[in-house]
Amino acid sequence: xxxxxxxxxxxxxxxxxxxxxxxxxxxxxxxxxxxxxxxxxxxxxxxxxxxxxxxxxxxxxxxxxxxxxxxxxxxxxxxxxxxxxxxxxxxxxxxxxxxxxxxxxxxxxxxxxxxxxxxxxxxxxxxxxxxxxxxxxxxxxxxxxxxxxxxxxxxxxxxxxxxxxxxxxxxxxxxxxxxxxxxxxxxxxxxxxxxxxxxxxxxxxxxxxxxxxxxxxxxxxxxxxxxxxxxxxxxxxxxxxxxxxxxxxxxxxxxxxxxxxxxxxxxxxxxxxxxxxxxxxxxxxxxxxxxxxxxxxxxxxxxxxxxxxxxxxxxxxxxxxxxxxxxxxxxxxxxxxxxxxxxx
Length: 344
Ligand code: TXA
Ligand code: MG
Known about the structure:
alpha/beta, 11-stranded mixed beta sheet, 16 strands, DHBP synthase, binds threonylcarbamoyladenylate
């Protein structure tokens, strides 16, 4: 199969994508977070293809992408008022809400759960594709399972060339980390995955928020978790990653003292001069955290190289999207964090 790449601006790109979706095929779609590997979320066979191409475990549910709050009731029931309040404030945008699923949503899509994740992406061409296809698009991040997510059309091509018919190229993803997931099916709203919307923004609207254990700690493979995806090794280059926290100077002193040939340093642009001779790679500016989230996965993909021995990573502090970066880097590092302040 030849994989075609069409620019989102090209006339007919959305129509071509919608046609493939309607016929049960797969299309890589841009969103403001990461690229998705999309198919008709109501078509079991199409959804099966997503799992096969991505190499994804069957119990890991897919998010349904919809065009707006008016679609919530089509796929969810018993929807609390909070869902509409959140949709009003954050949609279109990087927020996924987990709600009780209606029977029309195949259990293959929900990974066997009786809940469904719904999200309205902030990306005109993708909402247009959903509209033209007339069905919700089920889409996991387009990366091969276990690899860092895809934030450019080229990343998708790297993972899936010859395996899918079409990639719609919307340019590099603005947010760069996946959506925030909040579960509204329990007694209290629960944060299952931090993302583009910060936990404090959710809390301000909801007045209450539990942070799921999977966000902050390593989960065993056989543990029962609410966001099944969180237990799988994720976002990780092949080699070990270790986060070094603490001040610029102390972290640099620690890393420089332990650096060996074959290691790499993933750091902020402002820190590059501190790591001369240590093969540093910057993923954005510490002073502008949005550049860090936008650049994180491209950097992790660049560092996904069998020739690299170990990666020392620097991680921003604070809330908002920095909280999501901390989560992704900790997962890439299997929660291995060294505090340079304590050591020196
Ligand atoms: O930003 C995003 O959310 C991107 C773009 C493409 O929209 N999609 C994405 O999908 O990140 P994926 O499949 O890579 O991650 C979805 C996560 C998984 O951890 C999955 O377990 C969880 O959402 N999830 C989906 N439906 C769920 C449900 N009903 N209950 C709990 N967790 C759910
Ligand atoms: Mg993913």
